[in-house]
Amino acid sequence: MEKIIKQKNSVTLNTFAYDFGGKIKAIASKSHAHRLLIASALSVSPSRLILEETSKDIEATISCLKNLGAVITKNDDHLDIKPIPYIYSKSKKDTLVHSMDAGESGSTLRFMLPIVTALGMDCEITTHNRLTTRPLSPLYEELINKGATLSKQGISPLITKGYISPGTYTIPGNISSQYITGLLFALPLLNGDSRIKVTGEISSRPYINITLSVLASYNIKIMENAPGEFLIPGNQVYNPVSPITKVEGDWSNAAFFLCAGALSNESVTVMDLSPDSDQGDKKVIDILRDFGADIEINQNSNGLYDITVIPKDLKASFIDAHDIPDLIPVLSVLAAAAKGTTKIINYERLRIKESDRVEAIKTMLLNFGVSIEEKNDTLFITGTTDFKEAINDSVNDHRMAMSTAIASIRAKGPVTITDPYSITKSYPDFYQHFISLMH
Asked: What is the dihedral of CA 145, 150, 154, 157, to 10 degrees?
């Protein structure tokens, strides 16, 4: 029996007919790569990023930076980056209209928008599918208030003109940490000091920590005098501490295979991860332990760590999605296989991702015959021993496609994923890696 049957608009996984387990290497972190690429392009000196694989989202950021004038050359396992010219020149002004394509990458759009307005670059930023209608407010209004001219939201391309000025930027913390990251990249380039005041608690705070770490590695000084209040001196210069940087392994995508280890009949090891990473999704290790899985962590010859998840009877848990929204689709699969009822809270931001992930998770689990209810701002998932064979639509959401594949490990028959190639957004080789563990 074929492990996977690929068709134009679907793939069918026959995971039920095979054992599942083994080792794979973690792919490069999308979150870390976006930030390193941008910092390198804003620098005064060339740099090299060790990046063995990309994805559509990373390629979108590369494309936008090239359009602004950076020269980015791909080689076997790295990118050589010559920065955008004239950023720090007082005598030359960029007078081009830059046509950029952010693809479906929310990070690319929300990071680049403050940067191009800080640089005073006139741009037409094309977006696709759901990204065009995903929210930009209140970042959008803050940039206009500080001097930028922006075309109407919800229409592609988004047209930008003019400069933003230094000052206080007020952003609520419960919509998107990407707004804060975009400003943290942009405001050091202005000709005066600025402040970002985040109102309320910052959701997905670990992503801000990744940003701050990358900025520090490019000699950009940011002070956080109180939680959520960032002071940013102006007239700063991006200058890499090291000319060569390696992109970290991706905990968000590794989580799919780590959860697979808890669901399968053999252990699964994901190699080359760093437990010291600022990536918040490394919390998957603690969550797996809460569900009852056994975890082994061993340092390898690369100085990184191999994480092994050993299958064991799973028990229901309690999950707070506040800082880990991207883990919830695959954790919902874990909950569906655990004895008892798992509760998930603080998941509202999942509704404005690549899909309405709350509804997509409900549909996926119901297709597998799993009980899921939503009441009092809580998701209740009651586990079952086996999942039904199913057909599930990814709704053009990479994390829903991959979660469906992981669920196929527990299915009694074939599992078909329609719109399966949404995975190229973050993990183009996902199916190849998945079937490599079927034997």
From this structure: -160
31 burial level (CB within 10 Å; 0-12, 13-18, 19+)? buried
Q: Report CA torsion sign: 34, 211, 99, 236.
A: negative
Q: For position 92, what pLDDT does the model report? A: 65
Q: Residue 72 in contact with residue 81, Cβ under 8 Å?
A: yes
For residue 113, is pLDDT > 90? yes
Residues annotated catalytic, as ranges:
326
What is the Cα–Cα distance from 432 to 291, expressed in whole angstroms? 28
94 has a pLDDT exceeding 80 = no
d(CA 72, CA 59): 11
Residue 95: pLDDT over 90: no
pLDDT tens for each residue of 400-412: 999 999 999 999 9
Residue 91: per-residue pLDDT = 64
Pick from 336, 357, 343: nearest CA to 410: 336
Q: Alpha carbon of 439 to those of 18, 20, 260: distances in Å? A: 5, 6, 14
> For residue range 291-318, what is the model confidence (pLDDT) as tens digits?
999 999 999 998 999 999 999 999 999 9
Whether residue 93 has pLDDT greater than 90: no
Token pair for 172:
């609520």
* Residue 249, strand partner residues: 28
Residues 234 and 189: their CA atoms lie apart, in Å, by: 6
| Gap between the Cα atoms of 187 and 232, Å rounded | 7
Section 84-111 average pLDDT: 88
Q: Is the pLDDT of residue 355 over 80?
A: yes
